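New to this. Help decode both lines:
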Amino acid sequence: MNRIIQIFFWVGISTVMLIIFGSISGNFVYSFYFLSFFMPVVIITAWFFNNVLIPGYLLARKYGEFFLYAFYALIISLDLELLMVFIAFILIGHYDHENLGRIIDAYKWMPVTMYFIIILSGFFTIVSFLLKRNYIPGREDSNKYIMVRSERKNRKLDLSLVVFVESMADYVKIYLATEETVITREKISSLAEKLPVRFIRVHRSYIINYDFMESYNKEEVFIKGKSIPVSRTYKHEFLAQMKIFMDIC
């Protein structure tokens, strides 16, 4: 999931949880209170699983390391969650100790539900990567062109000629194999959603075309003699994508 989808996903989950547990307990203020304690731990745990463990280890077939790191991550996450539960109930007990038993009974399933959501988000991450396995590099793509706004007109670009894309603050440069550079004010995140699977985001400022890649390592990609950095944010997903392409070829 890209960042915008993740934001909508967690906002939606938080809203649903707020409504469900607020209705069960009859107090939406307490529901928001407990969510504010538990949700940060859940989001961080889900991010670690979906952006580090799954692409960097599970999909790269490093199963032993995946289960080991997943076990450690789960233990740390559970410890943090229990600490949040302890603090939350202490504070509630200080202000509303007469109803503490009823409150505990109403919210005891909230942490369990949240870990189920982590599993669900991980499932969607795995499915999205597995769907990409159906892509074979070099096969003609159904999406051959992209339309961008450049020099006050809409321009149709042949994707087979796009080498890489670079974001330059308030505009984006699209480098073509013909040595031409197309400049557009469209955001790189918007372009990333339009481009087919062979275009890979390796940095907040770069998208590369797999077909033009000459070599790579964990820190950089080389395309037509140019070194393009691979950031820590996108490294695990990039390496997993490379593993998928190499398995197919």
